[in-house]
Known about the structure:
The chain has about 425 residues and is α/β, with parallel strands linked by helices.
Amino acid sequence: MAHDPAPDVAVSVAGVSKQFQFSPEQVHTLKQRVLHPFRPRQPKVLQALNEVSLDVARGEFFGIVGRNGSGKSTLMKCVAGIYRADAGEIWLRGRLAPFIELGVGFHPELSARDNVQINAIMFGLTPAEARARFDRIIEFAELREFVDLKLKNYSSGMQVRLAFSVMVHVDADVLLIDEVLAVGDASFQQKCHDVLMEMRDAGRTILLVTHDMQAVERFCHWAMLLERGNVVELGNPRDVARRYEEINFQDEETRMDPDAVQGGRGARVLDAWFEDAHGQRSASLPHGESMACCMLVEFDEAAENPVFGFVVADADRETVFAATSAWKHRPTGHFGPGERVEVRTTFDNVLAQGRYRLSPEVSADSPGHRPLANRPEAVSVVVTGGREGAGKVDLPNEISIDRVGERASAKAGRQ
């Protein structure tokens, strides 16, 4: 039965799969082929997309995220018609403008003037419309003095400016935008972001592939996370961004060697972990919610009022948080040989996005705090969310702005 999307759907992808075949052993010369004529050369199969489905309504800004090799660009090229899907169906309603790969649709031997005319017509404008919009396209791209230069002499950033400018001036109903926006310089990237926000507010349908989770949360109405060609998260942009960050860090071990319990000087740290706001162990914690650092300690010898401490360090091994029971100036109690105790410190998670490592330690309540046990970098956690450029900690804050001249005038008037 043919797929029949709802009337308000601009882009519909139903059960799309795509695979590529490649040979693990390349034969480059006739000699290699003659010497090994019967060597098996069974091609390997890469499953780039596996039954991916999504519907994007008219006027929605939809984000597609995932690690390198997850299938994002393959999906966009299938939607654009550059690749043919092996299975499934793709529906589009309206004029499509893809901005998927740098240089696609441009002829390096032609000038920017000629390339603009050709690309605008390819996107559906008439020759007269392309000529009428030429000046606006060049002005937006800030390439007036290079308009007659052959494209092969353009830098990658200049080509991005030209291609993006053509795309936003052809009045397409559906825009496909890949990560190539990252090639432009900072000022042009901001210019592109401003245009995307205007297009979003104007109700244009946009599919954006990016690694920038801040852009996903800022622009997108909803988003999808791909991993090895499979959809692993589909929905709210914030939830998708957090899941992406979790997957992006999961290849790094979250725990140290379980046999690396250090102690033997009176106590041992048997276990250490992070807890979320619900008291559950977690390898990832959202910024802005309550969290806890925890440890399980077993005493080999009797200890009177031992001191328990935690140190949290960032990816550069710099301390960003520390806590110790000694600061409370309260006795922690008497513990006999073989006795176990759980210790935790709870606080609001103001850590910036990234990976952090916990080092718990136990010391004696004596001058110099003789160490009883420690376990450096016993466990790590990924903090998700937070604001870009917040530093090592993203502290809640308020900003006030007062005009000094007005305050001075008001003060003088009251005297």
